[in-house]
Write a structure and sequence with these properties.
This protein folds into two domains: 71 residues, no CATH class; 215 residues, MetI-like (MetI-like fold), CATH 1.10.3720. 70% of the residues lie in helices and 3% in strands. Helix 4 packs antiparallel against helix 10 and helix 12 packs antiparallel against helix 13. The relative contact order is 0.12.
């Protein structure tokens, strides 16, 4: 327990003595409680990032340097691009990248567009079945879409969309809409009603009101974009089943097939792993600020 004494020696004459509190500094347990979470987070970061760093570093080394010094940075003696030369000589990864970027960007755009429109309607209009419709859309989060793979395959076969990027885009859009609608509905409900009513009084249509409030829910849109983008880029299941053709092959599927053929060529294996993960890592780093704003805004609301 801290003790309190009166500081009478330093108090000016004619003024009341001020109590001095001793032993009120942070205790060892308090300091450990503050430092402990940071140590755990730093350890988790090291465990998650060190393997990625090793893959990227060793992809720029010669085969002998990979086995002799796997934990060292590439040097002028060990630097080699043989893995990347093998990748682009034996596979059409430039086409795979184009297909993955097309599918990912278009799917995320459609998820944000249709999800924002549906969320705006659920948040703005009070109609019969509003709650049931929101619950129905939320069920899509709990039920994995891969359980309906056979039905999806039959549907796309009937629509003649097998081995097409458009078929993948439709599937990924449907996969991302439930979460987008659920999250964005909460954001739209936080927009002040006075702002929307003032726009309607001035003669704005519902489309203009929707366009006006979209910038106000930008953190939510950024969070949904990141949440939707990573599973689409990394997905192997639907490209393998719905679009296995060479001309529509995605990066993940191309990397998986490449690894099966060149499993003993470690330069090529590490190079293809680096090519597959770096684009999404770069986009995540670029949009990490907006992603965290979306998470914290949703938590506060």
């Amino acid at each position: 327990m801290s003790s309190t004494v009166t500081d009478a020696t330093t108090a000016p004459e004619g003024t009341a003595a001020r109590p001095v509190r001793r032993g009120s500094g942070p205790t060892l347990r308090t300091r450990a409680g503050r430092i402990g979470p940071h140590v755990v987070l730093l350890a988790y970061t090291a465990v998650a990032c060190v393997p990625i760093l090793l893959v990227v570093m060793n992809s720029f080394k010669s085969r002998s340097a990979i086995f002799s010094s796997p934990f060292s940075m590439p040097t002028p003696e060990s630097f080699s691009l043989a893995g990347y030369e093998t990748v682009f000589a034996r596979a059409r990864f430039e086409l795979y990248f184009f297909n993955s970027f097309t599918v990912t960007i278009v799917s995320v755009f459609l998820v944000l567009l249709f999800g924002a429109m549906a969320a705006f309607a659920l948040a703005e209009y009070d109609f019969r079945g509003n709650a049931l419709l929101g619950l129905y859309l939320a069920i899509g989060i709990m039920i994995p879409i891969r359980l309906g793979t056979v039905s999806i395959l039959q549907l796309l076969v009937g629509m003649n969309l097998i081995n097409s990027l458009f078929g993948l885009i439709l599937v990924y859009t449907a996969m991302g809409l439930p979460l987008a609608v659920l999250v964005l509905t909460l954001f739209f409900r936080q927009v002040p009603k006075e702002l929307k009513e003032a726009a309607r009084v001035d003669g704005a249509s519902e489309y203009w009101v929707f366009r006006m409030v979209i910038p106000l829910v930008r953190p939510g849109l950024a969070a949904i974009a990141v949440f939707s983008m990573l599973p689409i880029w990394n997905d192997l299941w639907f490209p393998l089943i719905l679009a296995p053709g060479e001309h529509v092959r995605t990066v993940t599927l191309g990397a998986q097939l490449f690894l099966g053929q060149f499993v003993s060529d470690w330069n090529a294996v590490l190079a293809v792993l680096t090519l597959a993960m770096l684009p999404m890592m770069a986009l995540y780093i670029i949009f990490s600020k907006q992603f965290m704003q979306g998470l914290t805004s949703g938590a506060i609301k």
